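ok so dumb question maybe but i'm new to this and my supervisor (M.) told me to 'just get the structure for EamA family transporter' and walked off. so i did the thing. is this what she meant?? sequence i used:
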Amino acid sequence: MGAALALVSALSYGLSDVVGGIVARRMRAARVAFLGQLGGLLAVAAAAPLLTPAAPAGRDLLWGGASGLGTGLAMAFLFRGMGRGAMSVVVPVSAVGGVALPVLVGATVLGERPAWPTWVGVGLALPALWLVSRGPADPSRDTGATHGSVADGLVSGVGIAIQYLALARAAPGSGLWPVLAGRVTALVAVGVLACTLMRALSAEGERRAGSREAAAAGGAGVLAAVALTAYLVAAQSEFVTVAVVLSSLYPLVPAVVGVAVLGERLSRGQVLGLAVATAAAVLIAVS
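this is what came out, is it supposed to look like this??
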C-alpha cells in the first residue's frame, strides 16, 4: 500500500510539473510558484479539518513547517538555476540530490535496512532520474553559468531532501496538518525568496496571463499538495528510502506526457532512463 501511494505521489507531482510548466510559458516563474503554493494551501486548509478533526500536536506542525521551508528553498534555487539557462544541468542535479540525501540519511541515521532488491532499485533509480531529467545541452550557455547552475541544483536537492525527511517525521495520526503547516511556510518562503533570488526571473516581461492561467497555477499547487499527502501516508507505512525513491520518479510523467500529448521527442538517454526507472520502480514495489 505504501509503495502504491508513493507512486501516486510521483504521478501527482509529475502532473503538477506539467501544468506548471505550461502556465510558466505565459506567466513569470515566481508568480507561478507563489500561486501554486497558495492553491495548495487553500485546498489543504479546507480538507484538513474535515479529514483530520483532531487537534494536531505541536511537534507534527513543526516537522510539517520544516518540510515547507525545504520546499521553498528547493523551488527558489531550482528557478534561479533554470533562470541562468542551464536547465539540462540544474534539473537532474536537483532530482538526484533530492533522492540521494534521504536514502543516505535513511541508511545511516534512521537505520533502515530494506531488502536487497530495493537497494538494486535505488541504485538504478538514481542514474535513471539523471537521464530522464537531463535535456539537450545548450551550447550558448557559458561555463560560469553552468557552474552556477550546478550549485543551484545542489542547494535545490538539499531543499527537496529536507522536504521529504521532515515530513516523514510527522506522527501517523497527524493527518493533513503537517502538510498544511508545510504549505504555510512554503508560501512565506517562496514569497520572500521571490523578492530576492527570483527577482532576476521577473526582469523579462510576461505574456498576457489571465484568470485561467492563475487558476491553472493554483491547480498545479493542489496537485503538489495531493502528492505530499500521498507521500506522507506512504512514508508512515514504508521505509523512508522506499517512499522517497518512488515519489521522486515524478520526472517520468512530464517526459511521457510530452511524447504522448505534446508531440515532443525524447533523446536516446531519456528513453534509456525511462526504461531503467520503470525497472527500478518494479523492483522497489515488489520487494
